[in-house]
Design brief:
Belongs to the GATS family. The chain is α+β, with helices and mostly antiparallel strands and about 250 residues long. The chain has helices spanning about 40-50, 70-80, 135-145, 185, 220-230, and strands spanning about 15-20, 55, 60-65, 85-90, 90-95, 120, 125-130, 170-175, 175-185, 195, 205-210, 235-240, 245-249. Strands 6, 7, 8, 9, 10, 11, 12 and 13 form an 8-stranded antiparallel sheet that branches. Strands 1-3-2 form a 3-stranded antiparallel sheet, covered by helices on one side. Strands 4-5 form a two-stranded antiparallel ribbon.
C-alpha cells in the first residue's frame, strides 16, 4: 500500500519468518539466551549451506528471516534436528523434505567469510515491552522519538570506528506482542510504570557489525558473532537492519 518513492529503498528478496520453539527438554539453569541459544543448532548450519539470514530478537523470542528462494535449502538443512511446520490458514501443518525437494541446491564450496569491522559505542540500552492496552498512553512520545527527535545520521567517515554513542531505537509489533530497544537516556522520557523489563532491569551494550551497509547476499555474518558468544555462554539479542547488524550483550 506504500506509494513508490525515490526516498524508499526496497530489497529485492521476499523473506519468510522462522520461529524456533523449544521442546521443553532443555536443562534449566543459567544458560545463554537470545541468538546464542540457537547459534549452533540453526544459525551455523544455515551459514554452512550459504543461506543468508536476517535476525530479529524481541523481548519475547527470536525470529530468523530467510529468503523465500532459500526455503528448500533451509528445510533440508534443519530437518535432521527439528520438526518443521508451516502455517496454513492459522494452523500448523508438518513439512517434510519431500514437499520442497524440487529445486534443492547443493552446498557451495566453502569460502572464507568476510571479517567485518565492529564498533562498540558507549551507549547503554534497555530491552523493554509494553502491554498493548497501555500503548495509547505512550503513543505521542513514541511518535516523537521515532520520527522527530533524532538528528540525521552522520556519514560513515574515517573517525566513525570510535563512536561515543549511537542513535538506535527499535520497535516491533509481532502478533500483538510489543518489543522496544532504546537507549537509557530515551527511556527516561517515557512513563516508567508502563515500561516492562526483566526483574534485574539490566542494561545492555551494543556491538555493531559492518563498516558500510552489509547487503543481503553474504552469509555467515550472524554466525561469526553468535558462535563465539555461545561458546562463552553469553546471552545476546541480535537485530539485523537494512544496513548493519547489531548484537546487544
Amino acid at each position: 500500500e506504500l506509494p513508490p518513492s525515490e526516498f524508499m529503498q526496497v530489497a529485492d528478496s521476499t523473506w519468510l519468518v522462522l520461529s524456533v520453539v523449544s521442546n521443553g527438554r532443555a536443562p534449566s539453569g543459567c544458560q545463554a539466551t537470545g541468538v546464542t541459544k540457537i547459534a549452533r543448532s540453526v544459525i551455523a548450519p544455515l551459514a554452512e549451506h550459504h543461506v543468508s539470514v536476517l535476525m530479529l530478537s524481541t523481548y519475547q523470542t527470536d525470529f530468523i528471516l530467510v529468503r523465500e528462494r532459500d526455503l528448500p535449502v533451509v528445510i533440508h538443512t534443519l530437518a535432521g534436528e527439528f520438526d518443521i511446520y508451516k502455517e496454513e490458514s492459522g494452523e500448523c501443518v508438518p513439512v517434510t523434505c519431500d514437499d520442497v525437494s524440487n529445486g534443492f541446491l547443493k552446498p557451495k564450496p566453502a569460502a572464507s567469510p568476510t571479517l567485518h569491522p565492529v564498533q562498540s559505542p558507549q551507549t547503554r540500552f534497555c530491552v523493554l515491552t509494553v502491554a498493548p492496552d497501555t500503548l495509547p498512553a505512550i503513543a505521542t512520545m513514541l511518535i516523537d522519538v521515532l520520527f522527530y527527535s533524532h538528528s540525521p545520521p552522520r556519514e560513515a567517515g574515517a573517525g566513525s570506528q570510535d563512536l561515543d554513542s549511537i542513535t538506535f531505537f527499535a520497535f516491533s509489533l509481532i502478533e500483538g506482542y510489543i518489543s522496544i530497544v532504546m537507549d537509557a537516556e530515551t527511556q527516561k522520557r517515557f512513563p516508567s510504570d508502563l515500561l516492562l523489563t526483566s526483574s534485574t532491569g539490566e542494561l545492555w551494550r551494543m556491538v555493531r557489525i559492518g563498516g558500510q551497509p552489509l547487503g543481503f547476499d553474504e552469509c555467515g555474518i550472524v554466525a561469526q558473532i553468535a558462535e563465539p558468544l555461545a561458546t562463552a555462554d553469553i546471552s545476546a539479542y541480535y537485530i539485523s537492519t537494512f544496513n548493519f547488524d547489531h548484537a546487544l550483550v
